[in-house]
């Protein structure tokens, strides 16, 4: 989708006007030169505004760092995107991330509202194209509201570009009403948007009918509306009327640049490597130091590693699993190797050669030989991984200097639809071999499981199957920014975010059986399932009430 991926100067100028003309809060007043009739004269100008809305949809930093707000990863340097504070429970309404999240989404909503209020002024635009573009803008606006109500609960809801005075007096709309608005919008725009196969190559990556349906399923999932989740997922599973989707053949390949726009991708964020295009370089602070990274700012936890099953489908702690604590990464779920870097990991370099990564203290035979950055051993200092693990998923072998990448980031994919469907069916008491064979089994097949014990329906009570389905979500979607939302909607954050986050077994045997104590976490269930309304917002607008406990 070149017109969206290459974020042009016009779109940048438009976004700059929006931000500079605002008061940095919800009081985002219209910028006159942006809304004057002399701007809305051509399809290209309208498209530039829509491109701005796409650009504002979601930042790459939150996509990655949100894992650090969950039990999947630890942000050990600074407080990137506020996730160290969020995970440790050491924050209040003044935390910058809370303010930034609020402002970011309302800035995006402003762009969408401006587009929707003015696009009809372009009288020369093809009517069908205008209808489609309105659907895209409404989807993005609905997505922003979804993020807001998920974090904050009740939030101000409006579907027009409000004035400065209105912004200072508007109150919070009940969460249920915001959710109803989102669902109604998604239903209406799904009818107007093309299916994924209908877009020309130049428009690949634009929002589709399937994306509207999949986002609706996610909104319903987060609201525990199980029957509606199942019915919505059925609109995409084996139903080509709403788009052609399926599991990509390779789990590793799913996240490589040569396979962008494959049939598993339902919605993704668009990037192009290299200036002046939109790109990101997060892996400069995620990858092993030995392959050129400068430090580690986000490290997978031992808790995430432990969640990966053995090749026979058993948990490592189960009798008969075959788990060997002295050789812990052998005979494991193949997705572990495609997601996490561990001691003696074989890192595949861009030229196809392999480099052994040493993270255990004293294991590197030549710790200064790699790239001049030194060893990756846990004991080597503050720049290395504090858990003894690094991230592999989303590493881009085609990245430029300092890991600058144009690899698209997948927001919703078909495997997630299958997992949502499996979860809903189990919560309805309807999980059986037939549902399993349509959901978990093909996902594990694609992952590389071959043992029948791992592939066949395990049976059992609903509670046992709930654990299986939830763990499958964790393994399949690890490091994709979704775990924090899952543990909050399941109300398990109070369990998994209280106590130590651990790293590999490189510590003293006398403490936690030798597993590194990386970070102490705390989650107050009496208030932390909703974020506080940002302090700065309430200072500007006294009509914004606060969430309980804050």
Quick recap of the structure?
The protein contains 22 helices and ten strands.
Keywords:
two-stranded antiparallel sheet, 550 residues, single chain, globular
Describe the structure.
With 550 residues, this protein is mostly helical. The chain has helices spanning 2-5, 9-21, 32-35, 43-55, 60-65, 83-88, 96-118, 127-152, 164-167, 175-190, 209-222, 226-233, 302-307, 335-339, 414-427, 433-438, 440-447, 452-455, 462-477, 483-489, 493-496, 535-540, and strands at 73-74, 265-269, 299-300, 340-341, 345-348, 354-357, 390-391, 409-413, 499-502, 517-521. A two-stranded antiparallel sheet has the order 1-3. Strands 2-8 form a two-stranded antiparallel ribbon. Strand 5 (345-348) and strand 6 (354-357) form a beta hairpin. The relative contact order is 0.13.
Give the strand order, joined by hyphens, for the main sheet.
1-3
Secondary structure: number of strands: 10
Mean pLDDT: 92
Unreliable spans are 7-33, 369-374
What's the story with the biggest beta sheet? 2 strands, antiparallel
Work out the helix count. 22
Distance separating the two termini = 43 Å
Q: State the helical fraction.
A: 25-40%
Radius of gyration: 23 Å
> Helix- and strand-based class?
mainly alpha
Instruction: Using the alpha-carbon principal axes, give the shape.
Output: globular
* Strand percentage: 5-15%
């Amino acid at each position: 989708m070149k017109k969206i991926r290459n974020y042009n100067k016009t779109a940048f100028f438009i976004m700059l006007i929006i931000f500079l003309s605002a008061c940095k809060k919800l009081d985002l007043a219209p910028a006159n030169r942006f809304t004057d009739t002399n701007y809305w004269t051509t399809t290209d100008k309208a498209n530039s505004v829509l491109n701005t809305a796409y650009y504002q949809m979601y930042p790459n930093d939150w996509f990655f760092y949100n894992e650090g707000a969950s039990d999947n990863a630890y942000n050990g340097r600074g407080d990137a995107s506020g996730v160290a504070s969020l995970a440790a429970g050491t924050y209040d309404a003044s935390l910058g991330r809370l303010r930034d999240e609020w402002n970011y989404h309302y800035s995006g909503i402003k762009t969408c509202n401006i587009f929707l209020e003015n696009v009809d002024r372009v009288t020369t635009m093809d009517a069908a194209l205008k209808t489609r573009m309105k659907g895209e803008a409404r989807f993005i606006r609905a997505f922003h509201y979804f993020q807001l109500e998920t974090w904050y609960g009740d939030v101000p809801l409006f579907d027009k570009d409000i004035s400065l005075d209105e912004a200072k007096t508007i109150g919070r709309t009940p969460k249920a009403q915001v959710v109803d608005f989102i669902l109604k919008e998604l239903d209406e725009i799904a009818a107007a948007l093309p299916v994924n196969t209908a877009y020309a190559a130049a428009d690949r990556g634009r929002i589709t009918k399937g994306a509207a349906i999949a986002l609706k399923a996610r909104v319903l999932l987060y609201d525990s509306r199980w029957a509606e989740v199942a019915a919505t997922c059925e609109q995409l599973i084996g139903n080509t009327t709403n788009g052609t989707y399926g599991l990509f053949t390779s789990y590793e390949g799913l996240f490589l640049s040569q396979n962008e726009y494959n049939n598993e991708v339902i919605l993704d964020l668009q990037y192009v490597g290299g200036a002046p295009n939109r790109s990101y370089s997060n892996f400069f602070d995620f990858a092993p130091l030995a392959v050129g990274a400068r430090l580690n700012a986000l490290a997978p936890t031992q808790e995430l590693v432990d969640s990966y099953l053995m090749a026979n489908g058993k948990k490592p702690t189960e009798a008969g699993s075959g788990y060997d604590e002295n050789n812990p990464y052998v005979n494991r779920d193949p997705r572990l190797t495609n997601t996490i870097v561990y001691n003696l990991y074989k890192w595949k370099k861009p030229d196809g050669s392999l480099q052994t990564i040493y993270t255990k203290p004293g294991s590197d035979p030549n710790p200064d030989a790699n790239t001049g950055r030194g060893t990756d051993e846990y004991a080597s200092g503050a720049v290395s991984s504090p858990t003894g693990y690094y991230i592999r998923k989303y590493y881009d072998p085609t990245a430029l200097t300092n890991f600058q990448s144009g690899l698209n980031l997948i927001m919703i994919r078909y495997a997630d639809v299958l997992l949502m469907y499996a979860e809903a069916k189990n919560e309805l008491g309807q999980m059986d071999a037939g549902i399993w064979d349509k959901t978990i089994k093909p996902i594990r097949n694609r992952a590389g499981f071959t043992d029948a014990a791992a592939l066949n329906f395990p049976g059992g009570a609903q509670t046992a199957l709930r654990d299986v389905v939830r763990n499958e979500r964790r393994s399949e979607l690890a490091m994709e920014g979704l775990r924090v939302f899952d543990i909050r909607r399941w109300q398990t954050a109070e369990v998994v975010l209280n106590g130590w986050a651990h790293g590999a077994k490189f510590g003293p045997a006398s403490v936690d059986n030798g597993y590194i104590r990386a970070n102490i976490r705390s989650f107050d269930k009496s208030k932390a399932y909703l974020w506080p309304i940002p302090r700065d917002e309430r200072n500007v607008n006294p009509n914004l009430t606060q969430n309980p406990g804050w």
